Amino acid sequence: MKLQIDRNHLMRALSHVQAVVERRNTIPILSNILLQAEGDRLQLTATDLDLEASDAAEAKVGKAGAITAPAQTLFDVVRKLPEGAEILLEQKENQLALSVGRSNYALPTLPAGDFQTMAEEAMPVSFEVESAELRRIIDKTRFAISTEETRYYLNGIYLHHAKGANGNVLRAVATDGHRLALAETKAPKGSNDLKGAIVPRKAVAEARRLLEDAPETISVSASDSKIVFRIGEATLTSKLIDGSFPDYQRVIPKENGRILTIDTKAFADAVDRVATVSAERSRSVKMGAGDGKVVLSVSHAETGQGVEEVEADYSAEALEIGFNAKYLLDVAQQIESKEARFEFNDSASPARVLDAEDAGAQYVLMPLRV
To answer: Cβ(184)–Cβ(164) under 8 Å?
Structure first.
């Protein structure tokens, strides 16, 4: 293999695939990126056997071939080279020679034949979706993905076709059992066969990264066990979590009659301040809703006391309810509207939070005893 390639083109492709590689690997070949040169392209592929990313960059290929090289080292070397530099890559026996002007590097390699790629399979579900919309529903929900490995079926976003209030939608849901985030967009043509795919946390993060500079429309394909995102030249293939996502509709309150409307920023700032003196483990904050105001309070024997009062539109019966401060802040960060709408039933029931600027998003918070 021998080729010349623009540093910026190679850097862009490398940045799209190298994050898939696990830093600590018991299988040496999985620490490497597969480089395949043919025609006028250099194809790069990385995998951890559950997630696979590939991208291509334009190159002047003098000799076609394939080899694998250490992902992190190659990425770091290319990252530190000057922008716009012309890189010469050449396979020399068991090394990959990389040259730019007076800079010369030789990286250890492993045979391309030893590189393991994910098996291809038929994808009965296939549709195109606006990248901005997919980015939005990921951003609105991924903060609620569970990190508890014992409930593995909650370790991702549940992506599926559903019936919304205004027609069919593509819906994303995430929950960790203490909070739930739901966001939806108008169902793209062809998505009606997507009955339910739990996309793992790592795949969600990588897809979101690729969406940062994606074209206007991207392609999504899925089977019972895999999902594929095609974003420009890049392709991301992930195994799905093999499990049943819980019936989330049952935990979304439908008849919470106590309505509170409050300035989103003022509320978030007050929660952030008062949480400073909350116990680190529970981060619990008492939220008292009364006539025209909300009182946020924390009282802890060791860390002290704090009280914040914020104006609010609330005329229902007085209510005191406790929440995890971090969860309140996470939800507040998703609210685009100047005002957030909280819907309560009582101090022991979950609260629903809505965003006037985004009718396709809603959040559920379980209360704490305080």
So the answer is: yes
